[in-house]
Amino acid sequence: MNGHTHKYIHIYIYIYVYTSSKIVLLTAIIVVKNENLLNNELKNANQYQRQVGRKNSTQSDQMNKSKWKVSITTFNCGKEFPIENTKGIVKQLLFPYDDSISQLELQDIYVLGFQELVPIWQGSFPTVNRDLINGITTTAIDCLNEKVIAFRGGEQYSCLGVNSVGAITMIILYNNNALKVKADILKRNGKCGWFSTHLKGGTLVSFNMARNGDENWERFSFICAHLNANEGANNRNQRIDDYKRIMSEVCDPEVASSDHFFFLGDLNFRVTSAYDPATDYSSTTTLRRLLENNEELNLLRTRENEPLCKGLHELEINFPPTFKFKLFEKETYNRKRTPSWCDRILYKKYATPTLEQEGTYHSVSRSNALLFSDHQPVNLTMALPRPIGERRPLSLHIERYHLSWSSGLVGQVGDAVIGYCGWLLTKNAHYWILGSILLYLLLKNI
């Protein structure tokens, strides 16, 4: 204070803030030295608030109405999913980059694709696996809704659909407060293991979705697959046949012309060069060289004659191979196999090429919760474009795979044999059977 008397004008301004159901009265006391200065400040502030409001409203509408936010994760569990750590695993798969993600950053749709979720024999008995799959689904829903409740209160995520074939399972969750789904959800399975069994195959979930208050329905189709394993030309050719067979069995013209189509899973395509322990997989140059010159799927997709996965696109891979790791070690590859990018996520090309780059495509860090598998999960998070005007989506070319009339029956018998033989082995029944045979032979010769 300098001793001079200053005249202050005290003005009370009542600001009404309107929310969805409440009117909050805020009182602010602004002490100013000059009334004209106050009026100018208020005028400028009002203009700024109107501009920001229009900008935020426009941006929000554009983000909410012009894009679909989708997160897709694929994970081969190595037949040993640890039930006791379900929540830790699921959280890592849902939030692969940051567990502190806010409600505003949550996606519209979450897809979790699993391969070898259970022992192979157990895939013959869907009812046996029901509790595990339901537990994973419930845990995933709870993890998402925990984020929502922390910011807004009230749940908004639920299960859209689950489908399985053998040890392959796909779970799809969605924001039911903002989205609606038609009841005619399509589920199909294709088997391509030995003798048409479920040892390998793919599972489809296809549905029509729209935003609440919008009648512009769009079809989404997801296929989670597990193709033939192992290295070498013969196994590579079998993978090609597996892909064609799965697509032929589960895709009809409606699915092939989906607005949004994804093919994910353990596709098992390998790096053809011999494993060199000295390879520096942290080098971008090394990764690019291997992917361009030695990676089977990339070579098959870019070949001039009959390219594989025609009409499908993959974002650029900037992460090291996702298979084969030593169990319970974070970064050590198993020398029994050449490190390869087995786990992949592809999607149907869009009519506007620039839209294809709007996403992140990364491997999921091998945290302690994920070390039980020799695979590293892969996640694709994308903002998907919406159809413009009357534009029809591109349709995939599906090459028909001809099956014999008896393949279905043979597959069912094969699944039963795999299931019961595997179950007997877990009960050590083979020892009892062998012992019984030896005892019979011994008694017969007495």
Automatic annotation (TrEMBL):
UniProt entry keywords in alphabetical sequence: Membrane, Transmembrane, Transmembrane helix
The keyword Membrane belongs to this UniProt entry's keyword annotation: yes
GO annotation, biological process: phosphatidylinositol dephosphorylation
SMART domains: IPPc
SUPFAM superfamilies per record: DNase I-like (SSF56219)
GO molecular function: phosphatidylinositol-4,5-bisphosphate 5-phosphatase activity
Positions of transmembrane segments: 12-32
Top-level taxon of the source organism: Eukaryota
Record-linked Pfam families: Exo_endo_phos2
Xref: Gene3D superfamilies: Endonuclease/exonuclease/phosphatase
Name recorded for this polypeptide: Inp54p
Organism this protein belongs to: Saccharomyces cerevisiae x Saccharomyces kudriavzevii (strain VIN7) (Yeast)
Highest classification ranks of the organism: Eukaryota, Fungi, Dikarya, Ascomycota, Saccharomycotina
